[in-house]
Design brief:
The chain starts with a strand and ends with a helix. With 114 residues, the chain is α/β, with parallel strands linked by helices. The longest helix has 16 residues, at 58-73. Strand 1 (5-11) and strand 2 form a beta hairpin. The chain is built from 4 helices and 5 strands, in the order E-E-H-E-H-E-H-E-H. Helix 1 (28-40) packs parallel to helix 2.
């Protein structure tokens, strides 16, 4: 199993979580914990930078959708940055465009949420 690495940095009011590895049943708890921690610390605008993610299973997509709902309910938002081609394909297949915006770069995503 590939390890999951999540590094967070704050850009003004936006938390950027740079994720590297595979988000699947074995790593989704760590992914969800990182998302929950950012929210618990008062972050309501979150960018998920996924350039380093080679695979995201249904548990990862579900965690993002739950996060989007929670943030929207509190006036916040979440966005993807730098989706790899395989993830972008799944994102489009799941028709998530209306739920979670996707941007080519972290800079674009941070700008959109700022």
């Amino acid at each position: 199993m590939e390890a999951l690495s999540i590094e967070r940095r704050d850009e003004g009011a936006v938390a950027v979580l740079a994720v590297v590895g595979i988000v699947d049943m074995g790593t989704s708890a760590a992914f969800e914990t990182a998302l929950s921690k950012a929210v618990a610390e008062g972050r309501t605008r979150i960018v998920l930078s996924l350039a380093g993610v080679s695979l995201m299973g249904s548990s990862g997509w579900g965690a993002v959708l739950a996060l989007a709902k929670k943030l929207r309910d509190s006036g916040g938002n979440v966005a993807f940055a730098a989706l790899s081609p395989p993830l972008k394909s799944v994102y489009q297949m799941l028709a998530m465009e209306g739920l979670v915006a996707s941007y080519e770069t972290e800079r674009e995503a941070v700008g959109a949420l700022s």
